[in-house]
Amino acid sequence: MYRARFLQGAGYIMTVVVFTEKNKAASQIANILSGGKPDRKLVEGVPVYMFRRNGQEWQVMGLSGHIMGYDFPQELNNWRSVDPAILIDTRPIKTVTKKPFADAIISLAREADAIILACDFDREGENIGFEAKELASRVSRAPVKRARFSSLSDSEIIKAFDNPVEPDAAMAMSAEARQILDLKMGAAFTRYLTLAVRERARTKEILSIGPCQTPTCGFVYERDKAIKEFNPEDFWKIEALFHAKDMDFKGVHRAGNIKDKAKAAEIFDRIRAGKTGLVTKKSVTEIKTNAPYPLNTTEFLKRASKFLNISPESALEIAEQLYLNGFTSYPRTETNKYADDFDFKSKVIAFTSTEYRDHALAILSGGDIVVRNGIKDGHDHPPIHPIKAVAVKEVEKAVKTEGAGKIYDLIARHFLANLMPAALFEKTHLEITVEKELFDSSGSIMKNEGWMVVYPFETKNDKLLPDIKEQDEVKVKKLENIASKTTPPKHLTEAELLTLMDKHGIGTKATAPSHIETNKKRGYFETKGKTIVIQETGFILMDALSTSIPVVVKPEIRASIESLVQEVEDGSKDLEHAVAEGTELIKMMYSRLTESRDSIVSRLAGSINDGTATDDKKNYIGKCPDCGRVLRIISTEKGRFVGCTGYPQCRNSYPLPREGALSVLRSKNCKKGGAAVIKVGNKYCWAVGIGPCFACDLMKKCFPPEVVGPCPICDGEMCLVTTKDSRFLGCSNRCGRTQSLPQEGRLTVLERKCEVCGWKMIRIKEKDKEAIEKCVNRSCGKDQGKKRLST
DNA sequence: GCAAGGTC
């Protein structure tokens, strides 16, 4: 500054140095501020853009995100010799991780008369700017200012650089607090757990814990636990098939899902003779469905997974490629709301020369363009939208990454959809009375496609009802009392997981996919198509942690660090106090971890080195309730029993019957808590730890005979009897009535009943043949009941 | 070798 003022009189030209978050931003900002084409040079291999502005020499350089990072001092890097607890009390050291950038900063700073930090307008951006500021301060006393802008539009950039503000130290320090606390916790917990498990199981795997990855896994665990613990309940549903005006349509009894079998039977008895129904009420309502909000990163990743089956990780990578090639806008944004002065019209016009032509023309002919805007404004970047209007083929030619065309298509269609009117549906509800009982039928017809015309990803099937009025009569074609069971919740999809993470503030717009990847890499969960399924190690770890340190498995861990970080940003707490408080918190959790070492480790060790025992399907019984390892059938010369792989530490064992071939019935769960149910020969079943099933009062509940229909000659029921080399139907009263069954193929008794005789239907699937469904009753003459299935 | 956050 001193030098500048002194030299200015002698024709000295002030040099303004600008640091942006990345090269792309540097070049764009230089373009805007220079009003033309800036010169470009390389400093230490880093591009710098130069131009004259207001009589000053400007030099704009892009950083590469963080160019510094925290780590522990060298001497703490030996996992074996350093107690992980020490890490918690050690202040990590910040060092340069990208030297060329640091060198370039220093080189530019030497010549600078003024420095402007121009990174993204968020916490990490402020912090990245401060990394440059700190390096510059080593060689320069030039004043440092901050340009704040939330998009790279000309007007906003010029405004930001004409009115620079003071850098926000509190905001920058808040990110510092996050980095330090994340590292302390992650490193200490991960090292401790990994080393503890290695004492018991031979593995090179790392078992990591972190304030984002662990709650992410926690979401998956909670869902899969609910699935595991789910108990199906019976319910009955009374359905009618109506007919009017040449059309069949369905109705459901108003009682919906009836849990009480007797009640369902009673209702069904009242109506079963009904031949006609009366339309007692009809209502028609019009429903508007708005286009979804513009795409921010989270929403984009969710839709790419849901509609295109592209994982969040690769969707973000593809979007990055599209962005770098100028097809779409910056993919990392929280904002789902366009700026007031956003120029939609010229973009839509550009689309008139692409395959989206018809949609673009429809928008242009609809008068003023109205955008369907969201409500989130992260003051960062505009929603993800197309920059260039091109054909999908051109995108695929330029960007070779698989899925690039599909992603572009989604972004383009979403953009156009945001400019189109709402879709209109007409929903019709009919109340139909049969024998004084009420049935409901509903239908839906699309009246106006609106934005959905350009958005084929959402399904919009019409459900039609005949055009009938109140007091019209309809024919009853069929009435059914359908027995069903409640179904367990479904596994989480990636889209749902992203929603949960977003809702609980786990990770940022750019990092959510990486936390999912980390968990996969660790073997905690895996993706099967769009759904996510927990794996043994992940389940046991989450299960163990949720009893000893529940906050770690829940989003609370992130929230408590976040609230400290927020206080630093607000200025209500300084960095040192926040780090001290956070450290105390981590210490408390760490001591819970060490206290429960044995229970966590013994269970985890089982999941890791007992892989072979688990894979031994023939002898695998289940988890040992004492130590969490693996129970299996052990046969010796002296006899056989169920024992634990944890032997000799764990001496848990259970007796088995001496005689008979054993086969574990995987689908049966012993209701008295037996570890598994084993079939002994063809005679009886045996619950491990409980004893023979025939001696159990719950036998009939666990092994209900498969009833297929009434016995034709007595009041008994015909049941499926399966022996080692045959299967047939026999009367439950043992009156002597039997019936043979097809002996070949896999036989399944279906819930559905034959429409003619009321016996159950069966399904036979022979190898290399199509499955056949037919009535099980040989005396039932109905051959039409036979149906070939496509499988 | 450990976390999470930037960016390529």
Automatic annotation (TrEMBL):
Classification via Gene3D superfamilies: 3.40.50.140, Bacterial Topoisomerase I, domain 1, Topoisomerase I, domain 2, Topoisomerase I, domain 3, Topoisomerase I, domain 4
Chemical reaction(s) catalysed: ATP-independent breakage of single-stranded DNA, followed by passage and rejoining
Keyword terms: DNA-binding, Isomerase, Metal-binding, Repeat, Topoisomerase, Zinc, Zinc-finger
Cofactor: Mg(2+)
Stretches assigned to the Toprim domain: 15-154
Family the entry assigns: Belongs to the type IA topoisomerase family.
The protein's name: DNA topoisomerase
